[in-house]
Specification:
Elements: E1 16-27, E2 30-41, E3 45-49, H1 56-63, E4 71-76, E5 79-80, H2 85-93, E6 95-98, H3 110-120, H4 126-139, H5 155-167, E7 173-177, H6 185-200, E8 204-208, H7 212-218, E9 221-226, E10 229-234, H8 236-241, H9 246-255
Parallel strand pairs: 3-8, 3-9, 6-7, 7-8
Antiparallel strand pairs: 1-2, 1-4, 4-5, 9-10
Helix pairs in contact: 3-4, 3-5, 4-5, 5-6
Bound molecules: adenosine-5'-diphosphate and magnesium ion.
Magnesium ion (MG) binds next to helix 1.
């Protein structure tokens, strides 16, 4: 069993790994993120929940600058994300992202999917990159699939490869945007188990999910969003047993 990379620089200056301050974002007339203040500590697991359209995906996408913001600031490990260029690619690699749709490179093998970023962005040599890729594929339970193409794998296997690919960059934080929503039910647990293990190993994680079992067992904090705002945040026990806002009560009554 190989060691999973955990958040780096555990002793670096501040304990705040991701800091959003007064972040605002519009899509035309739609104010999709409204004065978002959110601080995520090193090693913390934050689950983001809320109704469809509340801005959860946009929030994730702003954190690694797949979307720009209109105002406010976002710091990753104390540094703002640059607007573009090489420096952005390097800093973006510090923020691993796993999407609902698996987003693997269809014309590359599983192994190539996990080595590509290491070779291009981290400039790792090929033998080292492959060794690390194989170790990570073993870690997420798909080592026997290394030479296949993504379409030859089940959805659950593809999503575990996507996690291995993100981990190969030694990210400081991992963002998961509904990683199990597109999976057949019998494959959801195999992906959640990999995420649970990552959380136990100390990875800093932001997870958008409707899997309340995962939220209860893995999250340090639940953030509830509605209409572009953070309406409520609390420890999972407190949030699920005693939500304060009417919006959260209404949401929970529909999903639980
Ligand atoms: P969630 O992930 O919580 O379902 P999203 O962040 O995907 O919410 O979307 C929030 C709102 O922003 C929705 O109303 C959505 O239609 C809108 N939206 C998302 N992306 C875009 C875009 N690229 N252009 C215009 N509107 C968008
Ligand atoms: Mg979404």
């Amino acid at each position: 069993m190989t060691e999973v990379p955990v958040a780096k620089d555990a002793v670096a200056g501040t304990n705040d790994l991701v800091v959003l301050k007064s972040v605002n974002k519009h899509f035309g007339a739609l104010h999709v993120l409204q004065d978002i203040d959110l601080t995520i500590a090193r090693g913390e697991v934050v689950v983001v929940i809320g109704p469809s359209g509340s801005g959860k995906s946009t929030l994730c996408r702003t954190v690694n600058r797949l979307e720009s913001v209109d105002s406010g600031s976002i710091l990753i490990d104390g540094k703002p994300l640059p607007a573009e260029g090489r420096e952005l690619a390097r800093l973006r690699a510090d923020v691993g992202m796993v999407f609902q749709s698996f987003n693997l490179f269809a014309h590359k093998t599983v192994l190539e999917n996990v080595t590509l970023g290491q070779l291009k962005v981290r400039k790792t040599d090929k033998a080292k990159a492959e060794e690390k890729a194989r170790a990570l594929l073993d870690r997420v339970g798909v080592s026997t699939q290394a030479d296949k193409y993504p379409a030859q794998l089940s959805g659950g296997q593809q999503q575990r490869v996507a996690i291995a690919r993100a981990l190969a960059m030694d990210p400081k934080v991992m963002l998961f945007d509904e990683p199990t929503s597109a999976l057949d039910p019998e494959m959801i647990n195999e992906v959640l188990e990999v995420m649970q293990q990552l959380a136990r190993d100390g990875m800093t994680m932001v997870v958008v999910t409707h899997e309340m079992g995962f939220a209860r067992s893995a999250a340090n904090r639940v953030v509830f969003m509605a209409d572009g705002r953070i309406v409520e945040e609390a420890a999972p026990d407190q949030f699920f047993s005693n939500p304060r806002s009417d919006r959260a009560k209404d949401f929970l009554s529909k999903i639980l």
